[in-house]
Amino acid sequence: MPENIATSEAGSPLYLRVRDQLAEQIERGEVTANIKLPSERVLAERFETTRVTARLALAQLEAEGRIYRSNRRGWFVSPPRLIYNPTEDYSFSDNAVTQGRLPRTETLEVRCTVASAWLAGKTGLETGDPVVLVRRRRYLDERPVLVENIYLNSRHLPGIKGFDFNRSLWKLLRDQYSVDLVQKKIEMFPTALVDPQASALSVNAGTAGLCVNRCSRDAAGVFVEFDEEFWLHDTLSIQVNVA
Amino acid sequence: MPENIATSEAGSPLYLRVRDQLAEQIERGEVTANIKLPSERVLAERFETTRVTARLALAQLEAEGRIYRSNRRGWFVSPPRLIYNPTEDYSFSDNAVTQGRLPRTETLEVRCTVASAWLAGKTGLETGDPVVLVRRRRYLDERPVLVENIYLNSRHLPGIKGFDFNRSLWKLLRDQYSVDLVQKKIEMFPTALVDPQASALSVNAGTAGLCVNRCSRDAAGVFVEFDEEFWLHDTLSIQVNVA
DNA sequence: AAGTGGTCTAGACCACCAC
DNA sequence: TGGTGGTCTAGACCACTTG
């Protein structure tokens, strides 16, 4: 049975009225976190319109962070955002568990390489200085939510390449090297995810994301690590306190 | 003369190849900041495709923050992002000028009201406590880039309603009330802009944005102001230092 | 008045995923 | 194998902006 939309007052475009109806159903809890929405074809029929218009409505809800898509499996309701304070020493896993989520970390790659001009500019290293690159992917409730490139100062952290990176990096540095990260420079901006990050997260190129870069030094001001994080835009809320 | 795209290897979807060609032209400087792109119909013809596909390519570049649209006037190349540190006492104007931009502030509304339950939860006020609401819109080079709702503790700031809000709020508090904002709690998350913020910025509902909330207190911990900012996503880069 | 983006129709074929 | 989203065509009319 079609919804009473196509026949309603046309005060706003059809795709926004479809959006509002879907949003209402989500808020009423008729569909809840991680539940699949009806298919685009079914929605188009239900609202007596075409797939193009149904997709416009879905794109709106996706942009607002209310729903997300998974591969070609369909559209799902987004769970609450993870609260994340990038200024603090940080265990992704502890933080997720505290918020009632199931975290998982995959180490995609560990490789010795040298600093690019871009990295040198960000860190104060010289171009060509040795660094260890660690690429990780992190999940919440089995949904991949971020990929990151970590560049470690290998001169300052001998033997770092041999450790297990599926655990908290901050704890590793503290326990194995007695390094405290006390100086941080953090940069954040919203942007679309493109390859290779989009592929790594199994989303389409152009999916909205948040890029978080963090440059950390020890108490003496020596560069320790640079972290480049690519988050799906609907999965996090940044919180920072200044005292 | 059509670009050599439709005939090129179809390793990726057409709209991504169109995106790449346009991105290249932007990077080569053939079109630069605030320059208008060819119309969607011209692009469709040039790349031997339809408007729908051309719009997909443009939407990609918009999501990446490379271009933006202005009403029904066309698509324009985005200028560099404004670097913004929300943890510091902050003059929008000074910051913009330092970065070579032309700032402007409009006060849309100044109104006495009372704290909602939502605001009470964010600030520690009681629901119903008196506050002054200031709504402002801010421009960079005559492009509106953010709207904000400022809630001021009117008990703590007698007579605040009478001042000029087109200048820096922080300077106003310092000069007129000798208040230093030393405790701040900041929250940021990417989301789509919807009405009324979208209308206030003359963009379509669903345009990508960044919401920045800031709760500031004085040295004694008394609530002074809560600021709710809605930025266009391609206009800013957040930078924070932790020492 | 002409041109622009905004919205919408009614289809089509493809790649991938689950059954 | 059938259903899903992903991509794409070839048009249409409308609202608004600009000359």
UniProtKB/TrEMBL annotation, chains A, B:
Swiss-Prot/TrEMBL keywords: DNA-binding, Transcription, Transcription regulation
GO molecular function terms noted in the UniProt entry: DNA binding; DNA-binding transcription factor activity
Positions of the HTH gntR-type domain: 12-80
Any one Gene Ontology BP term: negative regulation of DNA-templated transcription
Classification via Pfam families: GntR, UTRA
Residues in the signal sequence: none
Listed SUPFAM superfamilies: Chorismate lyase-like (SSF64288), Winged helix' DNA-binding domain (SSF46785)
Domain of life: Bacteria
Name the UniProt record assigns to this protein: Putative transcriptional regulator of 2-aminoethylphosphonate degradation operons
Species, as recorded: Marinobacter litoralis
